[in-house]
Hints:
The complex is a heterodimer.
Chain A: H1 5-35, H2 39-49, H3 52-63, H4 68-93, H5 97-105, H6 109-117, H7 123-155, H8 163-175, H9 182-198, H10 206-221
Chain B: H1 8-29, H2 38-61, E1 62-63, E2 66-67, H3 71-84, H4 89-106
Antiparallel strand pairs in B: 1-2
Helix pairs in contact in B: 3-4
Amino acid sequence: MSINPNRNQVDRTALSVAFTVGLYGAAFGAAGVTAGFSILQTCLLSILLFSGASQFAVVGIMGAGGSAVSAIATATLLGFRNALYGLQMAPILKVKGLKRILAAQITIDESTGVALSQEHLGVKAARQGFWLTGIGVFIFWNIFTLAGALGAQAMGNPAAWGLDAAVPAAFLGLLWPRLINKTDRLLALAACALALAMTPYFVPGIPIISTALLALIFGLRAKIWK
Amino acid sequence: MEINLIEPFWLAVIGTSLFAFLLKITGHSVPKKWLSNPRILKINSLIPIALLSALVAVQSFTQESRIVADQRMAGVGVAVLALILRAPFPVVVISAAATSAALFHIG
């Protein structure tokens, strides 16, 4: 048997990403139950929706009393990038049928990120990175979602345990690495201001999804480098 | 149109999951050039920043459509500090929760 160091490196990266990201699942499980979803519904979101930012958005909006339609619209806007990841992954994976369906379901930030970061080691390493990270995150994310949901239900009043601050802190953790330049930070502040200014006058959910317009305006004004 | 036939939380679970999967499978199935306009890519990268920021603000500073400042604000403030100090994710969340819980019990 030969030892392939590249493969070991891919495995290590994939598994450490999968485990670390899986831990976020506990925060999501707790957030889901705190927002009023049942344990079953919270776990189904992690199995079926399976996209961290979209999941947190759904429970955030429903928990604030927003409508299902605004939750669906916001989560779908956040899920659009997974379609772009699919575009990048399809020529690397070259899969059809059931395997394509499985690949699509695990096409998220992390699986695509690890795959593309291993691309310089060859297409095999990229594929390995994609599948191992995607399946690994899926497993850990769902185990920790259940643990977080059970834990939150056992706790009773969420505010007494600080869960009411843990949820926005978890959002911040997702947001922080995306704030790379001045435009990003300006957009973040503008979105906070717009959402808060709209809150007293609109039903919950509308102030959040309205900030997508800010992203559109900032995006149209931004310089594009090819 | 009446959509009370299905409970809103279930509608949210099923609706978001369905659209999320449709987006994922579309990406794997359409020609690459369809969605690779640089302007669309730029807007797409900015959308999560806007929506996640709005969620943080609404969850930290509002209660039933009112602007409020309570223990959550202190908790999120500690989270910001932890992120500036490059703390790992569990530390960020737990320090925010501990701060908020402490103030909840004092207040």
